[in-house]
Amino acid sequence: TYPMPAKPEGVDAGILKGIYRYRPSVRRRVRFKAHLLGSGAILNEVLKAQQMLENDYGVAADVWSVTSYKALYEDATAAERWNWLHPDESPRLSFLEHQLADASGIFVAASDYVKALPSSISKYLPGPLTVLGTDGYGRSETRAALRDFFEVDARHIVYAVLSALARSGKLKAAVIEKARHKLKIDPGKRHPFSLF
Q1: Whether the predicted model's global pTM rises above the 0.90 cut
Q2: Exposed, middle or buried by CB within 10 Å (0-12, 13-18, 19+), for 35?
């Protein structure tokens, strides 16, 4: 149980259409930029990850609340369809593309549900997307234990961002190795879905 946060100002359209910037980064000097997508209860883990990234790793991270991946996907495919049917006219942008028009960097989506939902919008993002999710397998542990097992808690969100930065050549191997130990990430752990 946790209190619902207050609704930020000016986000009504985003709530209805599928996405809004819930909490922008407070960092002014930006060396690395990330965008964290979360929805529902997982948003608390995303907010923790934002603080860890900014305080411990110098990564400026914006948090986006996704209220409907389905609505974003449908709107994006509708804009895409209109564009290929009207090649002689100015292309239309989807709501998602409008929202993220000034976004740069990497994107990590965390979900308590299937990875396919966040993955459905990946081609419409202005940067690479890493998706963390549980793929809907039910287990009887606590929520914290489940999120650790399925690798979707704040630690894993942070590590996904750092890993994406390392893969893009922006972060040195020594930094990611140190983070792996600090965050207690086990790269040799069996894939969660291999246990079913």
Answers
A1: yes
A2: buried
